[in-house]
Amino acid sequence: MVKFDILSHELVPKFFILSKEEVEALRHSYGIRKESLPWIRRSDPVCKTIGARPGDVLKIERSSEVAGRTVVYRYVVPG
Amino acid sequence: MSIAEIAKSIKSIKFGLLSPDEIRKMSVVNIITADTYDEDGVPIDAGLMDRKLGTIEPGQKCQTCGNRVGQCPGHFGHIELARPVIHPGFAKTVYLMLRASCWNCGRLLLTKEEYDKYTLMMERYKRRWPQLRFKLADRIVKKATKTQECAYCGKEQFKIKFEKPTTYYEEHPEGNMKLAPNEIRSRLERLTDVDAALMGLDAALARPEWKILTVLPVPPSSVRPSITLESGVRSEDDLTHKLVDIIRINERLKENIDAGAPQLIIEDLWELLQYHVTTYFDNETSGIPPARHRSGRPLRTIAQRLKGKEGRFRSNLSGKRVDFSARTVISPDPIISINEVGVPIDIAKLLTIPERINKFNLDQMKVLIENGPDNHPGANYIIRPDGRRIDLRFPKDRRTIADSVEIGYVVERHIKDGDVVLFNRQPSLHRMSIMAHRVRVLPYKTFRLNLCVCPPYNADFDGDEMNLHVPQSEEARAEALVLMLVQEQILSPRYGGPIMGGIQDYITGAYMLTRKSTLLTREEASQLLTSAGYDGSLPPPGITKPEERWTGKQLASLFLPETFNYTLRSNVCQKCPQCKKDECENDAYVVIKNGKLIAGVIDKKSIGAGQPESVLHRLVKDYGTDKGRYYIDKAFKLFLSYIDSRGLTIGLDDEELPEEAKERVRSVVEEAEKKTAKLIEIYNQGLLERLPGRTLEETLETKIMQGLEEARERAGEVAGQYLKDSNTALLMAKTGARGSLMNLAHMVACVGQQSVRGERITRGYQNRTLPHFKPGDLGAKAHGFVYSSYKDKLNPIEFFFHAMGGREGLVDTAVRTSQSGYMQRRLINALQDIRVEYDGTVRGTDGSIIQFKYGDDGVDPAKSDHGKAVNIDKIIERVVGAGGK
Ligand SMILES: [Mg+2]
Ligand SMILES: [Zn+2]
Ligand SMILES: [Zn+2]
Ligand SMILES: [Zn+2]
After folding, report:
1. Does A78 touch chain B (CB under 8 A)?
2. ∠B413-B414-B417 over CA atoms, to 5°?
3. How far apart are CA B239 and CA B224, in angstroms?
């Protein structure tokens, strides 16, 4: 079977792994620990594809019915 | 010791299992006899009602702690079980642990490498993702379960079968072997603490073998008090009954073991003991018959005390009974404000508010005290600064008491006009189900409410009852007033629009007042405005020749702000392809310019409850809730006054059609019947063409249904042409006040197809609905088409089909309410603690982020325009100039 690049599918939003500095900035802007972000599992197909590791923070840009575009974040956990 | 001294903050809670040692340690008595009381009614020592277990009789001192009834917390006892039994609550995890461990050496079935790997992982998880460690444990158990051979002793593993609720078998080549609880327990004992940790158990608090009971705790007698009936017969609690059973069997088992009875007998008794323990915990365990009382009623054991609507959680912890509340039937009062609630005087004399006496209210309070509990406004209690309460019911001479009170005393005075109370109608499905009202003390026995608050409460007056609560503190009152007052709830968060507003006669009244033909004399206009509470001066008449006359539009304009501009299409609009706007012959195009209603009639679209983009919506949104309340209180009264002065009625004559119309309706229906017959004929000849994705039979059904539905619609239209404009039912349907044109068509023309489950009626006898028809008859009449109108009367067959369709409707509503009620409960449970923080994020109680921006756009739907942040069209219209020109 040909491996399909899920990142190019129109229903898969854009994922980015944040750098250490970006994570710090994000933590400060919300005043939280990384664990307080919503979680995503390492076994998630996108995490596997982009090589996210537990402890990483992902930035997700996606379209929203009410707000046009939205940016959300996910904390990568094992499993 | 005061509460403050012993108060400690809880950092965390950890749940564990009681070990046999702990059970023995906390026990004050080993229960060995199944008897409770002797012939004299004295509790038997070492029995289930042993006095060491705590006192339940007043005046008696507890043999353990020495306290009396209120003070003694009750004390646990215990039963030493002759043989271990499975705790039914842990039967499933015991099964998993049996499968994950070696039958021979008792170790977790992992290879050395896996074991090391998982131990390390578990350590890391505990540090970084403690919440995930149970998921890891699940994974480890799953892995171990799959292992065939023990890595420690090399023994091959057997499959284990679990039979609910508490039986386990090991599948040997020679056949299944039952695993006795003591065998299971000894296997679990051999699991190391680390093995246990890998399976998600903290061995310090929960050793695996503690899931098999060797000692049973006996709850204190205060948990299962016996009751003495009037006849002097003592009746024991269900739990006590169950414990008696357990002790009896336990003793017999012990005797048989001691006597060296055959294994078979011992096993039988052992199983019986297991049964009693299982039902003691949960008497609704599937797979075994529930234990019953002598009368045949199933016993209410531990799980039953906690579970369900009448259980401890939902009935005693989540919901409690409260003071300062009242409940009675509601009835309408169009005179009082929407912010008010009429409170019967008898209730006002029972509900109180504590008011502290100061130098400003001293004289007033003295009057209230003198009035006492039986005269409104009065007072029921006085609380002195030292905390003593004086009951005003008993003293004869209240005047001396009134004279003796000083500043600093608290008076529990009756509620009176203007007090803030909370008013509620169940089911409380949204926040508008509890709103703050101001009290209006009224005669008679019902709560009175303004009709415009019926929609948010979903109340009507066919016997509905409502609850009233009196906030007791200044903070609670302030909060209620600012956040919960009715006028603050006019705009609903359910959708961007007013949930309160005109209903039924308000809408008809507004329409009749504001239509072009309404011209009022000076006397009539003054009368109407006075009853509406208008206090300005009468505007100059709209018409001066031949006589001075005021238009209804003029009067309706008097309550609008002078800067108010708006246009909309009203409910009576015919939705013409090209709207003639101001020149609309139905006067359906509403134009309000500078607070004057220039054109158009006011109806549901302008003032109706639940109508977004209406006059009412704009008024509340742009001018504030005060103005909104003012409009509803005053203008709406004008509409009612007008309908009162004119009268509005509906009668049988309104459903009467001229003979010509009846003839036309009949021909429409007959035509449809012929068409149906034709379709059936084509079908019978096999010439019917199949619709895509349908069978031939389905195609026929669809086509027949379509034809008949069309016929009903046409009949309605035909009949509608013959209805006079003065027909009040038509008037109400067109303005949106009540009913629809379809309802009208049902009454005057034809009721149409009755359906069950969205299909024509097919059930009943074999191949036919009723014995009046030939088997296989596919015609309209035989499958629930009602030719008649309600006015004409339904024939018995039609009536029967109609009842079938009607019954389905009733069943549907009953099912829907129960289902949506359950969904509501679960949603509320899941959502009750999350909130929107000041930074716009939605967070849980631990600060975890659930949404980065509330609803992705941060819009409060209550302050939105029908869900959108802004309604650009309306803003442009307003800037450019409403209504053109
Ligand atoms: Mg009702
Ligand atoms: Zn005690
Ligand atoms: Zn082994
Ligand atoms: Zn129109």
Report:
1. yes
2. 120
3. 6
CATH of A11-77, one of 3.40.190.10, 3.90.940.20, 3.40.50.720, 3.30.70.360: 3.90.940.20
- Do the Cβ atoms of B355 and B484 come closer than 8 Å? no
Inter-chain CB pairs, A–B, below 8 Å: 44
- How far does the centroid of ligand 4 lie from the alpha carbon of residue B582, in Å? 9
pLDDT of residue A17: 95
Q: What is the pLDDT of residues B839-861, one digit of tens each?
A: 999 999 999 999 999 988 888 88
Q: Which ligand is nearest to the CA of B600?
A: 4
Ranges of each domain in chain A: 11-77
Closest ligand by atom to B462 CA: 1
- Do residues B414 and B297 make contact, with C-beta atoms less than 8 angstroms apart? no
Question: Do strands B420-424 and B465-469 pair parallel, antiparallel, or not at all (unpaired)?
Answer: antiparallel
User: Which of B128, B850, B854, B860 is best to mutate for the A interface (most A CBs within 10 A)?
Assistant: B128
Q: Which of B852, B860, B868 to mutate to test the interface with A (most CBs of A within 10 A)?
A: B852
- Return the closest-CA partner of residue B754 out of B727, B725, B781: B781
Q: Which residues of B touch A66 (CB under 8 A)?
A: 855-857, 859
Instruction: Fill in the amino acid letter for B412.
Output: E
> A74 exposed, middle or buried (CB, 10 Å; 0-12, 13-18, 19+)?
buried
Query: Torsion angle of alpha carbons B803, B804, B809, B811, nearest 10°?
Result: 110
Q: Is the pLDDT of residue A1 over 70?
A: no
Q: How many CA atoms lie within 13 A of B708 on its CB side?
A: 27
CA B324 to each of CA B332, B415, B469, B843: distance values in angstroms, whole numbers, following the listed order? 23, 10, 6, 34
Q: Quote the radius of gyration of chain B (alpha carbons, Å).
A: 38
Helix, strand, coil percent values for chain B (each to nearest 5): 40, 15, 40
Residue among B581, B528, B582 at smallest CA distance from B554: B528
Write out chain A residues lying below 8 Å of B848, CB-based.
32, 35-38
Write the ipTM: 0.94
Neighbours of A55 (CB within 10 A): 14
Q: How do beta strands B589-593 and B596-599 pair?
A: antiparallel
Q: Which two tokens stand for residue B474?
A: 């200044």
Q: CB atoms < 10 A from the CB of B453, how many?
A: 26
Residue A47 pLDDT: 93
Residues facing residue B731 across a β-bridge: none
Q: What is the pLDDT of residue B3?
A: 55
Chain B contact probe: residue of A28, A30, A64, A65 with most B CBs at under 10 A: A30
Q: Chain B: which residues have CB within 8 Å of chain A?
A: 125, 128-129, 132, 135-136, 839, 841, 846-850, 852-853, 855-857, 859
How would you classify residue B175: left for phi > 0, otherwise alpha for psi between -120 and 50, otherwise beta? Answer: left
Q: Which letter does DSSP use for residue B652 in this model?
A: G
- Asked if the Cβ–Cβ distance from B132 to A67 is below 8 Å, we say no
**pLDDT mean for each 10 residues of chain B (885 residues):** 69 91 94 85 86 82 84 91 93 92 88 90 89 91 88 85 89 88 91 90 92 95 86 86 92 90 90 94 90 89 90 86 95 95 96 94 92 91 91 88 90 94 93 95 96 94 96 95 94 87 92 90 91 89 88 90 86 78 79 87 89 89 92 93 91 85 86 85 83 85 85 84 85 89 86 86 88 86 87 91 92 89 89 93 93 90 80 75 49
Six token digits for residue B639? 């509409």
Please state, in angstroms and rounded to a whole number, the distance separating the CA atoms of residues B126 and B132: 8
The answer to whether the beta carbons of residues B492 and B865 sit under 8 Å apart is no
- Tens of pLDDT, residue by residue over A50-70, are 999 999 999 999 998 888 899
Could B849 and A64 be called an inter-chain contact, meaning their C-beta atoms sit closer than 8 Å? no
